Amino acid sequence: MTLCLALCALCCTLGAASAQTPAPAPPPGHQVVCRDAGAGGYQAFPDVARLKNRDLLCVFYAGYGHIAHPTAALPRGARICAVRSRDNGRSWGPAEVVADTPWDDRDPHIALLANGDLLVNWFTYYPGGPSARPGEGTRYKEIWTTRSRDQGRTWSEPELLPTTASAHYGVSAPVRRLRGGALLMPIYKEMADPLRVWSYVLLSKDGGKTWGEPIVVDPQNDDNDEPDVIQRPDGSLLCVMRSNRGEQIMWRSVSRDGGRTWSRSTPIGFPGHAPYLLRTRWSSVTLLAHRLPGTALHVSRDEGETWGPTVPVDSVIGAYPSLVELGGGRVLIVYYEEGPNSAIRARVFRVGKEGVQFETAP
Description:
Elements (H helix, E strand, L loop, with lengths): L2 H10 L1 H6 L11 E4 L7 E9 L5 E8 L15 E7 L10 E4 L4 E9 L5 E8 L15 E8 L10 E2 L8 E3 L4 E2 L5 E9 L4 E9 L10 E2 L8 E7 L5 E6 L6 E7 L10 E6 L1 E7 L6 E6 L3 E6 L10 E4 L4 E9 L2 E7 L7 E9 L2 E4 L4
């Protein structure tokens, strides 16, 4: 089985995994951020960030299906698109292209850097699974970046990260800014026959211009991928990772030296895919959004040491969520619905002593 087929097989098990994890029904109501970006009617894998000018920019994958290799109708395959909100998420503008290489560009993420630049990272699939990219000696899955110095109006030419070339690396989280100025990019490596996955991090000391060699989180665990990382008040780093086996209970690991070494991974206690972490400024709670069951949240009030019960966000299984604070104690979550004519969705909520309270409109 190729790696692409392995991914599809995993996606086919999502409904069964969700059914095994009952949770309360999600409250009604969501906003559609984008339903058709002009690349085939399938939108997925969103990530949202607050810009220096206070706009919100949501980047996402646009193609004709869960994998969209080049076709006659879409000769460059899936692309990275973005929509902008100038009113704090109440409305969103039309889709614009951020990057479009000749291959399937997927799972984009966006980060605001200290100097105001925007950095988008994503990975590419090449047709034929682990075969070489046509005309070149590279392999199947690699990580790329593009940068904007004008609030996302224009973007640099896509750049391949050399440390991920020809090495089966994917990415499922944004670049994270660490204290002291370093940048950290959570990534993962995927191998097939049988499926084995490991989480890694990349570190940059020059604002993302160059990146070091991948650092593995737990080499003894070959069932952890799609990592995300946040820095806690004591300076330690918390990494949460997806699991693909059994009950799909996510993993956690901690680094106390800036990401150079990590603790052995341990189960976090509940299932999930594509975890996304946010520590709120207003109440100092840690939020963990993820897929399974449906689209869901967990809340921690002790820096990720323990977590509250599952909070349903939406019944749709697409997920791959992202979080951003709107101000006034409000948080925006973006995610996607799986299937034909899929869309990027959004909801707004607050976290108080009584728990999570959703708004009916942004």
